[in-house]
Amino acid sequence: MNKEIRQRLTWVKLYEESKDAGFVCRRCGISRPTLRKWWRRYQTFGVEGLASQSRRPLSSPNAKISPKEEALILELRQSRNLGARRLQSELVRLHQLSFSLATIHKVLTRNEVKPLKKIRKKTEFIRYERPTPGDRVQMDTCKIAPGIYQYTSVDDCTRYRVLRLYKRRTAANTLHFIDCVIEEMPFPIQRIQTDRGLEFFAEKVQKRLMANGIKFRPNKPGSPHLNGKVERSQKTDKTEFYPTVDIYSVDINEQLAEWQHYYNWDRPHSAHKGKSPMEKYFDLSNETPYSDEVAQNYDSSFEHVQLANYQKELALQKLK
């Protein structure tokens, strides 16, 4: 029997002996409601009724998170290995549930979920970022499944993206994708940066860029880190978008368009301190040049059709 129960039992016994509530309250320094409460509990439950009871309500309608929502967070973490910030984003996108990062961290901590393992890179590259929207747009392709390839373009400054799916990586599909990028990017494009994939080096592709006043700047061989933003964004697609859809569904292109809109307008980006790409663009809209200004600064004399073979391209440049 702990100290609190012994003390309350003393109040009750003293009241039984004296039958004077005022005397007991004065002597023990308690109020009449307090004495009455413990007397009734003693009469109903005996000595066990003198123990302190939990004040937690039987139901909490104003609780921040329900058991069902907590189970959803844990299921997303286990099945897709997402961190707290990405869990927050996916809950909004897929389930229209909005929780703070602190709430999600509490759920993970309460359930003793192990933290994600951080992969340490052998070599740390210095990240660069162009200060103006449209100054450099990184473009790449990646295989999603047999017969399904994703073309991706991402603006170096704002991280605004345009996505399309094609059955093959061809020059014709590249031309169509370039037209989509020019149409959908909310700012004029000054240069496009790619790897050395043959789908980008077709003569008609490069001439289409020249016709639109866009510089073509492919990376050197063996330099995937220079196209790091588009590479990481494609990894984001494979982690956050494709696990939630059937890639062979008839409306996969519509679902990809919805994902593109969500990424550009609503998804918080850690590089922008939680802002979306469009919010970043709105912040820089006054510094973004207009199409006429970009066209005036484009000098076609510096542009030529480049070869995919880097060594031959260097040799030709030396001859000139």
Short description:
By secondary structure, this protein is of the alpha/beta class.
Written account of the structure:
- The chain has 14 helices and five strands.
- By secondary structure, the chain is of the alpha/beta class.
- The protein folds into three domains: 3-50; 67-110; 137-319, Ribonuclease H-like superfamily/Ribonuclease H (Nucleotidyltransferase, domain 5, 2-Layer Sandwich), CATH 3.30.420.
- The protein has a five-stranded mixed β-sheet, with helices on both faces.
- The relative contact order is 0.09.
Which key terms come to mind for this protein?
single chain; 320 residues; alpha/beta; Nucleotidyltransferase, domain 5; five-stranded mixed sheet; 5 strands
SSE blueprint:
Blueprint: H1 3-18, H2 21-28, H3 32-45, H4 67-80, H5 84-95, H6 101-110, E1 137-145, E2 148-155, E3 161-166, H7 171-184, E4 191-193, H8 198-201, H9 203-211, E5 215-216, H10 228-241, H11 252-265, H12 277-284, H13 291-297, H14 310-319
Parallel strand pairs: 1-4, 4-5
Antiparallel strand pairs: 1-2, 2-3
**Proportion of strand residues:** 5-15%
The largest sheet is: 5 strands, mixed
Secondary-structure content class: alpha/beta
Helix content: 40-55%
Cα distance, first to last residue?
98 Å
Count of helical stretches: 14
Element order: H for helix, E for strand: HHHHHHEEEHEHHEHHHHH
Radius of gyration: 33 Å
